[in-house]
Write a structure and sequence with these properties.
mainly alpha, 0% strand, 83% helix
Length: 77
């Protein structure tokens, strides 16, 4: 059985499908029983999707989106 530390280390590879069948099954089993890791993988996936969407907008030359992104990066936390 994988530990939470193992699942977080494998999270990105798991989402990309770069894990062996055995590891994939182990990760899925762990995710079935661990709500914290399920949340982590869900947020990891959402972050990756958001980054990809931003990259697509910038690649297309959406100047308004680029300006909003740059402005939000300038704001202090």
């Amino acid at each position: 059985m994988l530990k939470c530390r193992d699942v977080t280390a494998l999270g990105s590879d798991h989402l990309d499908g770069h894990t062996s069948t055995a590891k994939k099954l182990q990760v899925q089993l762990h995710l079935m029983i661990c709500k914290h890791c399920r949340r982590f993988v869900r947020h990891l996936n959402r972050s990756r999707q958001t980054g990809a969407a931003i990259a697509r907008r910038l690649w297309r030359g959406d100047d308004q989106a680029a300006a909003r992104i740059m402005e939000s990066l300038k704001k202090p936390d």
